[in-house]
């Protein structure tokens, strides 16, 4: 569990700082009626939290504290907490609590000479499946050291995705700053893995690449052509990780909010009934997507680590 906690601190540091980007202004107080439905207000980041309220619009906003930006030369860094940062902290706390509870329950069950039961058994099965079928086969030989980080990535993304399905919740992984921060951490892990496995000369060979068997006269030409391609391929990996997670988590919520909006736009019981059925189906699909993209991010990170380690 100590390695799990260290991974959380590393993963959270960059993503939490980035989540402050693009925060929106606080919305109107609850006593000012507003009949418009602003989809972007529900999808974007802000310095307010939505809490349930018994009067229309059935929520009210709590302003988060605003801190004076820290200036570093010409840059002004705003460390004020945002909605997505709060839900990232909540996701981290949920995962840490679940892992501590599961490890304790599994340890007690094994000490008693019986298998774990209930929720702990389900969590143990998921963890072992991710470890045995996703991480170790793709990372390759001596891949045990990558298991804590990749399991942390899987459960953290899953918790963020699921919190976005809770009423009055927010999807931190629907923020490109958050997914971009996580992708940069994965890029760091991938490249450092390559340096440690291949050595300095071998790692430079993944950047300044010349195919074997090429005539000497052609090597400088191919080096000029292939080096930018190799650099772009390294940068394309975290870009794909960040954009894929961000786009899919945002798109599902846009469709869901658009379907709900049909009921208010047409003010028809028929349209409202059809929209409610469609929204329910989309919610079921969103539940599947939440698990799917936690799996995809973890799988691709493991594959990229395995690919650079296999270069030798």
Give the overall form: globular
**How would you sum up the major sheet?**
2 strands, antiparallel
Radius of gyration using CA atoms only:
23 Å
Q: Portion of residues in helices?
A: 55-70%
Mean of pLDDT? 84
Number-wise, the strands total 4
Low-confidence stretches: 8-33
- Portion of residues in beta strands equals 5-15%
- The protein's oligomeric status is single chain
Spatial sequence of strands, sheet with the most strands: 1-2
**Domain module count:** 1
What is the CA–CA distance across the termini?
Answer: 32 Å
Order of helices and strands: HHEEEEHHHHHH
Structural class by SSE content: mainly alpha
What is the tally of helical segments? Answer: 8
Give the topology, please.
Elements: H1 2-18, H2 39-43, E1 48-52, E2 59-63, E3 70-72, E4 75-77, H3 83-111, H4 118-139, H5 147-163, H6 176-204, H7 219-266, H8 269-309
Antiparallel strand pairs: 1-2, 3-4
Helix pairs in contact: 1-3, 1-5, 1-6, 3-4, 3-5, 4-8, 5-8, 6-7, 6-8, 7-8
List keywords for this structure.
two-stranded antiparallel ribbon, 4 strands, two-stranded antiparallel sheet, 67% helix, mainly alpha, 312 residues, globular
